[in-house]
C-alpha cells in the first residue's frame, strides 16, 4: 500500500471512531487457543459460555473470544458429544464447564461462567435466556431477540428479577463502517438526511431451520431485514411511527411454505424522512445508503463480518483497518457489565425491533399502514 493511502486510512479510521468517543481496539493477533486460555485464567476477564455450537458460534464467536480483553470462552453448552470433545481440545475447556441441554441449568453452580451467550435458533432464544437468568448469569442473546413482544417482555422481566444484564448480539453497533454512517448523519456532514435505504438478502439453501417458521419465526425479515431496520434507525436516530410492507410472489412454494421470500418495507419516520428497505432469501442485497441535503454516503457491503466498503458523493472512500466485530461487541458488553453501565445493545432495543417486526408482518398481511 502506498504511504499516502495508508495515512489516509488511518485518518479516516481515527476520525470515525474518536468522533463517537469509542475506544480503539488494539491489534488482533493470531492467538493459540490453548495459550490464550492460560492467559484468560485472569480474573479480570468474564467467562462466557456459548449455548449452541452452530455456524455462528463456531466460525465467528469462538475465534473472536481469543481476541477479547474483557471476556474469554469459559464454557460450552451443546447437544452433540463429538462437538464437546473437539471444542474441549481446541479451546482447552475443562470438563466441568461443558454442558448439554439437560444439564444446562447446573451452570448456576459454576463460578467460571459469568455470561451465557445464546446462539440457538430463534424460537429457543426466550427459553434459554430466561433459564440463563434463573441460573444467575448475565445473558447475551442473538438476534432476533425472540419471536414475539410477549417473549421479549418475559426475558426482560427475568433479567430484572435476577438483577443481571441482557444484551442482544447486534455486532454492527461496534463496527466502524456502520458507526461512520451514524457519525456522518449525526454531524450533518452532508446536511440533514432526507432519505435512507437499505437491502440485505441472499439465496438461502433449501431445508435449513431458517426457512421453518416454527424455529425462525418468519423469513428473511427476522434474519436479515432486521439489520436493515437497525440501519435505518441508527443512522437517522429515529424510530418509525408507522410501517407499510409488501411481499413479492413466492417463486418456489416447496421452499417458502409459510414464510416470506422477499419483502419490501417502508418506515414512516418523523420529519418526513423517507426510509425503506428490501430483504430476501432469493435476491442478493447488501447496502445502507443515506441521501442528505448536500450529498450521499453509503456502505456496501454493509452487513458482512469483513470486507465492508464505504463511499460518499464527493468521492471519499470510507476505510478502516480490519477488526473482529464480534470481539469488539463481546468486549463492549463485558466491559459494560464490569463497570455496571448500561449495555449499548440492551434487551429493550431487541424488544423494540421485535415490536416493529410484528407491525411489518401485520402490514404485509393486511396491506394496510400499521402504527408501531
Ligand atoms: P446454525 O444452524 O449454524 O446453528 C444452530 C445451532 O443450534 C446448532 O448448533 C444446532 O445443533 C443447535 N440446535 C439446537 N436445537 C436445534 C433445533 N431444534 N434445530 C436446529 N438447530 C438446533 O445457526 P447459526 O447461524 O449459528 O444461528 C444461530 C443464531 O445466531 C440465530 O438466532 C441467528 O439469527 C444468529 N446469528 C447471528 C449472526 C450475527 O451476525 N449476529 C450471524 C449468524 C447467526
List keywords for this structure.
Dihydrodipicolinate Reductase, domain 2; single chain; binds nicotinamide-adenine-dinucleotide; Rossmann fold; 2 domains; 20% strand; alpha/beta; disordered N terminus; 37% helix; nine-stranded mixed beta sheet; six-stranded parallel beta sheet; 372 residues
How does this structure look, described?
With 372 residues, the chain is α/β, with parallel strands linked by helices. It folds into two domains: 31-169, Rossmann fold, CATH 3.40.50.720; 172-323, 2-Layer Sandwich (Dihydrodipicolinate Reductase, domain 2). The protein is built from eleven helices and 15 strands. It has helices spanning 3-19, 33-39, 55-64, 81-91, 125-134, 149-162, 176-186, 213-216, 220-236, 325-339, 347-366, and strands at residues 46-51, 71-77, 98-99, 115-118, 138-141, 166-168, 193-201, 242-247, 262-268, 274-280, 285-292, 295-299, 310-312, 317-318, 370-371. The strands form two sheets. A nine-stranded mixed sheet has the order 14-13-12-11-7-10-9-8-15. It has a six-stranded parallel sheet with strand order 3-2-1-4-5-6, sandwiched between helices. Helix 6 (149-162) links the parallel strand 5 and strand 6. Helix 7 crosses helix 9 (220-236). The protein is globular, with a radius of gyration of 21 Å. Residues 1-42 have low confidence and may be disordered. Bound molecules: nicotinamide-adenine-dinucleotide (NAD). Nicotinamide-adenine-dinucleotide binds at residues 52-57, 79, 119-122, 142-143, 169, 171, 209, 215, 223.
Amino acid at each position: 500500500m502506498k504511504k499516502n493511502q495508508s495515512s489516509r486510512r488511518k485518518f479516516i479510521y481515527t476520525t470515525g471512531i474518536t468522533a463517537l468517543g469509542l475506544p480503539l481496539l488494539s491489534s488482533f493477533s493470531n492467538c493459540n487457543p490453548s495459550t490464550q486460555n492460560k492467559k484468560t485464567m485472569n480474573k479480570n476477564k468474564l467467562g462466557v459460555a456459548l449455548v449452541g455450537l452452530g455456524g455462528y458460534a463456531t466460525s465467528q464467536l469462538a475465534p473472536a473470544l481469543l481476541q477479547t480483553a474483557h471476556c474469554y470462552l469459559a464454557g460450552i453448552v451443546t447437544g452433540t458429544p463429538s462437538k464437546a470433545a473437539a471444542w474441549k481440545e481446541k479451546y482447552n475447556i475443562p470438563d466441568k464447564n461443558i454442558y448439554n441441554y439437560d444439564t444446562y441449568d447446573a451452570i448456576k453452580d459454576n463460578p467460571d461462567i459469568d455470561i451465557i451467550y445464546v446462539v440457538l435458533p430463534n424460537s429457543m432464544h426466550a427459553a434459554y435466556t430466561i433459564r440463563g437468568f434463573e441460573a444467575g448469569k448475565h445473558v447475551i442473546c442473538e438476534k432476533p431477540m425472540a419471536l414475539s413482544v410477549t417473549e421479549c417482555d418475559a426475558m426482560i422481566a427475568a433479567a430484572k428479577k435476577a438483577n443481571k444484564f441482557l444484551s442482544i448480539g447486534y455486532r454492527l453497533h461496534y463496527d466502524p463502517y456502520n458507526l461512520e454512517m451514524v457519525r456522518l448523519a449525526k454531524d450533518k456532514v452532508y446536511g440533514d438526511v432526507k432519505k435512507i435505504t437499505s437491502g440485505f438478502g441472499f439465496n438461502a439453501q433449501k431445508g435449513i431451520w431458517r426457512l421453518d417458521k416454527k424455529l425462525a419465526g418468519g423469513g428473511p425479515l427476522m434474519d436479515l431485514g432486521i439489520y436493515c431496520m437497525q440501519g435505518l434507525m441508527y443512522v437517522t436516530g429515529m424510530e418509525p411511527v408507522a410501517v407499510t410492507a409488501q411481499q413479492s410472489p413466492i417463486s418456489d412454494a416447496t421452499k417458502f411454505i409459510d414464510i416470506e421470500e422477499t419483502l419490501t418495507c417502508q418506515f414512516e419516520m418523523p420529519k418526513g424522512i423517507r426510509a425503506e428497505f428490501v430483504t430476501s432469501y432469493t435476491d442478493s442485497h447488501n447496502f445502507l445508503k443515506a441521501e442528505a441535503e448536500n450529498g450521499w454516503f453509503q456502505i456496501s457491503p454493509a452487513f458482512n463480518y469483513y470486507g465492508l466498503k464505504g463511499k460518499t458523493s464527493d468521492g471519499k472512500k470510507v476505510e478502516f483497518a480490519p477488526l473482529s466485530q464480534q470481539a469488539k461487541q463481546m468486549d463492549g458488553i463485558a466491559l459494560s457489565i464490569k463497570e455496571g453501565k448500561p449495555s449499548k445493545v440492551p434487551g429493550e432495543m431487541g424488544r423494540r425491533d421485535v415490536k416493529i417486526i410484528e407491525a411489518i408482518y401485520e402490514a404485509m398481511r393486511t396491506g394496510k399502514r400499521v402504527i408501531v
